[in-house]
Every structure is written in structure tokens, then in C-alpha cells.
Write a structure and sequence with these properties.
CATH topology of the largest domain: Aspartate Aminotransferase, domain 2
Number of strands: 17
Number of helices: 14
Shape: globular
Number of domains: 2
Strand order of the largest sheet: 4-12-11-10-7-5-6
Strand content: 15-25%
CATH architecture of the largest domain: 3-Layer(aba) Sandwich
Structural class: alpha/beta
CATH superfamily of the largest domain: Type I PLP-dependent aspartate aminotransferase-like (Major domain)
Length: 407
């Protein structure tokens, strides 16, 4: 395959700097194609993908079934808006309901939009059932729920919040995994409590069972809705279809996105019937959400990742990756702690994670950061055991380079 951009990486990088809003720090290579757990740049160099588009490409790159579905679906309807019925939307909604706690689904285009919807639904539920004063929202330290004003208001990290304040009022933060603090924060004026069962952006921090159980009980006492943000940790990433299944704690609403449509924009809010009952036509909407093409792709993803054999393989590969990373951590003086579940891992380091991110391009591995000092690994769920070995080998080389640079 001849890449049209071959030999032009520097030109593309220069164009990006001149014309694209500079909200990301990208490496100097240009990615042009992918295959399975690998991506390739415009010079033909291969990188093993430990990011998967930030937990998006669950089935890897150029998955044959996904590609075939996109091609076939594009011959039919791509978009008609939500003014009309289409079969793919309702079939996908039924499948999500049948495989979760939920009774109803609202579709949108991203995780941030899903969180905005969940907050609106919670506010209306509280107003209808309890009156106008039950509007407060509880979130937790280390949280990341999105970058629009509502989602940003419940995101704890100061650097994301400060430039855009004042944000939506009525939000209080409690320490993550602190039972007593959560119980104290969830008072009668709280309409919703938002929590990631496994925090992603702040450094891969799994919730404890006691914390989620007690938070659920506190919500029940206060008449507050419990919202689980599974945008990053949901859809088989932790080895069960939903992260909440590890804890046997069921939310009232749950937000999804990242892997749901294999890289096409899609989010969803799953909810109980009690929440759905307060919403009426005109309360919320989306022009692009749940188009026929994207829903058919999402059905492929959901069918694949919810299969018992697939989930068992994710758990097995997760245990294997954990053991390989543990061995790396024991040998590297840079690694302080290893945290994670399934194929979602963070390595807390004594150096800035950006240095490992940059060093990874030399041995050919893509990783990403989760906070200033955590190297995050989110490989495709279809990664093989030999590919895990190769990923850890290249990651070890990247750590060795950083060790030499900081010696």
C-alpha cells in the first residue's frame, strides 16, 4: 500500500501548527493506517498501539467486520436526524437494555454529551419528585467527566476548570474512595452523585467495593440519583461488560461513549424507567445522534465485546499484562506503583509521564498520560499475548531511555 503522505510528515506537522487550534501536544510523526494492534506512520514505521484511541478502538484497527459494516451501511442511510424512526437505533437500544441494568437509552455523540444529558435528567427528576431546591451534585477528587461547562463543573482537576470559571454552581467534591466523606456530602439537597467506577484521566484509580456500596446506600437515603461514568472503563475494558459488575452496585444512570461505535462518534445515557418517566418530547435532543450507520457499527462492537468468551479472554489477557507490568515495575527505578483492571492500567512514575510518552516513539510504542506522573496503557481488547509481550518489551526500552536521560 502506497501512502499518499509518505515523505511529507514535516509539511503536515507545519500545516497543523498553522491552521489547527493548538489544544494538543502531538509527536512529530503522522499516522496513516492501522492493522490490529499496530499503527503505521507516513514513513512506514510500525508502532504497537497501547492507547487504542484513548480506549476507543476496542476491536483494534481495520477490524474486518467493522469495515464491512461501514461499507454496507453507507450504501443505505447515513443520516436522517432524530425526526424519523430507523431500525438500527431501536435494535441497538434494545441490545443495550437487555445487557445492562437499564430500561431506556438516550443516544448522543460523545462522552461529554452523555454526561450533560445525565445531569439534565437528574435535575428534572429531582425537581419533579422533590421540588425546586434539590439541585446539588456531588462528584469526587480525581474525577474527569468532560470539557463542556456542565461536565467540566463536576471535573475536579483544577487546571481544566480554572481558565473557564465561573462554572455551573451547586457542585461539591468529596475525596474519592472516602466512605465517610461521601456520606457527609450526600445530603437532602443533592440530586445526583457522579462517580467513575475506575477513574481514568487522573491515573487509573479503581473504586473500592465499600466506597461504591456506601455511596449507593447514601443516595438511596437522600433520594439522589447515582450516575456511573463508564465512558472509559465500560464496554469490556475491565474484563466485565460493565465496570459496575465487578462491584454488584447498580446505578440509576450510566454514561457511555469511547469504544461504543469503533471510532465513530457516539455516546449514550442508560437509565432506569423512573428517570425516563420524567422526560418528555422536547426536553433534550441531538441532530446527529444514533444515525443508521453509526448504530450498525455500534451493534457489531456490542455483540463482540459482550460475548462471554471475549470477556473471558480480556480477563485472561488482563492478568497476563498485569504480571508483565509488575515485572517491569520491579526492575525499573522509575515506577512507583501499578494500578488497574482488565486491559486498563496505569504506572505511576517518579518522572513526568510525558517523558515516557515521548520516548516511546523511538522503540515504537504508543502510550498516553493519565495525570502528570502516570503512564496509561489502554491497548485494543483484541491484542494477543505475543503482542502484549512485544508491547511490554518496547515499553521497557522507553523506560530505559528515560532512565539514561535522567541519570
Amino acid at each position: 500500500m502506497k501512502d499518499s503522505t509518505k515523505g511529507q510528515a514535516s509539511d503536515i506537522v507545519a500545516l497543523e501548527r498553522n491552521h489547527v487550534l493548538q489544544t494538543y501536544r502531538r509527536p512529530e510523526f503522522v499516522l496513516v493506517r492501522g492493522e490490529g494492534a499496530y499503527v503505521y506512520d507516513s514513513n512506514g514505521r510500525a508502532y504497537i498501539d497501547g492507547v487504542a484511541g484513548i480506549a476507543v478502538n476496542a476491536l483494534g484497527h481495520r477490524d474486518p467486520q467493522t469495515v464491512a459494516t461501514i461499507r454496507a451501511a453507507a450504501e443505505g442511510l447515513i443520516h436522517v436526524s432524530n425526526l424519523y424512526h430507523t431500525e438500527p437505533q431501536v435494535l441497538l437500544a434494545r441490545a443495550l437494555v437487555e445487557r445492562s441494568f437499564a430500561d431506556r437509552v438516550f443516544f448522543c455523540n460523545s462522552g461529554t454529551e452523555a454526561m450533560e444529558g445525565a445531569l439534565k435528567f437528574a435535575r428534572k427528576f429531582a425537581r419533579q419528585d422533590y421540588g425546586d431546591d434539590k439541585t446539588h451534585i456531588v462528584a469526587f477528587t480525581g474525577s474527569f467527566h468532560g470539557r463542556t461547562l456542565g461536565a467540566l463543573s463536576i471535573t475536579a482537576t483544577e487546571k481544566y476548570r480554572a481558565p473557564f470559571e465561573p462554572l455551573v454552581p451547586g457542585v461539591r467534591f468529596a475525596p474519592f474512595n472516602d466512605v465517610s466523606a461521601a456520606e457527609e456530602a450526600i445530603t437532602e439537597e443533592v440530586c445526583a452523585v457522579v462517580v467513575e467506577p475506575v477513574q481514568g484521566e487522573s491515573g487509573i484509580h479503581p473504586a473500592t467495593r465499600d466506597f461504591l456500596e456506601c455511596t449507593r446506600a447514601a443516595c438511596n437515603r437522600a433520594g439522589a440519583l447515582l450516575v456511573f461514568d463508564e465512558v472509559q472503563c465500560g464496554l469490556a475494558r475491565t474484563g466485565t461488560l460493565w465496570a459496575y459488575q465487578h462491584y454488584d452496585v447498580v446505578p440509576d444512570l450510566m454514561t457511555l461513549a469511547k469504544p461504543l461505535a469503533a471510532g465513530l462518534p457516539m455516546g449514550a445515557v442508560l437509565m432506569t424507567q423512573a428517570v425516563a418517566d420524567v422526560m418528555v418530547p422536547g426536553d433534550h435532543g441531538s441532530t446527529f445522534a444514533a444515525g443508521p450507520l453509526v448504530c450498525q457499527v455500534a451493534q457489531v462492537v456490542l455483540d463482540r465485546v459482550s460475548a462471554p468468551d471475549f470477556l473471558a479472554e480480556v480477563r485472561e489477557k488482563g492478568h497476563y499484562l498485569s504480571s508483565r507490568l509488575s515485572a517491569l515495575a520491579e526492575k525499573s527505578p522509575l515506577v512507583r506503583e501499578l494500578r488497574g483492571m482488565g486491559l486498563m492500567w496505569g504506572m505511576e512514575c517518579s518522572v513526568e509521564s510525558d517523558s515516557v510518552f515521548a520516548a516511546g516513539s523511538r522503540p515504537g510504542i504508543l502510550v498516553c498520560s493519565a495525570g502528570p506522573n502516570v503512564v496509561r496503557l489502554l491497548p485494543p481488547l483484541t491484542i494477543s499475548q505475543p503482542e502484549i509481550d512485544e508491547m511490554v518489551k518496547r515499553l521497557t526500552a522507553a523506560f530505559s531511555d528515560v532512565e539514561q536521560e535522567t541519570a
